[in-house]
Amino acid sequence: MAPNEGNSFDNQPLGDIPLSLDAILDILASERRRALLEYLWNRPDNSGSFEEATKYTIAKIGEKRGVQPNHDDIQVDLQHHQLPKMADAGVVDYDVRSQRTRYHENERLEEAYEKVEELTDD
24: pLDDT confidence band, cut at 50, 70 and 90? Predict the structure, then answer.
């Protein structure tokens, strides 16, 4: 599933999409993808704007590293690499026209995220 090129996902049902362990670990391997997940989890209806997601990701990475990453670099990477990867896995929908992203609930991914975060809190 590639990023949505103009169809709104407002009425699409969200469900627990089966993911392999490899797919889960691949998604969680990226600090930027983990930040995107956190942003969406903390939003009403697990959805939000692309610009807000970008700002959240920049702040999260800046907080962990002590240096703010470049906005444009993060924005391009999220739009052209991170979101498409997550959309292909069925974890998110990204509507290009409205610049909105929505997370599809996945219990296994969320449980794995918690374990990965424990490991990265060093």
Answer: very high
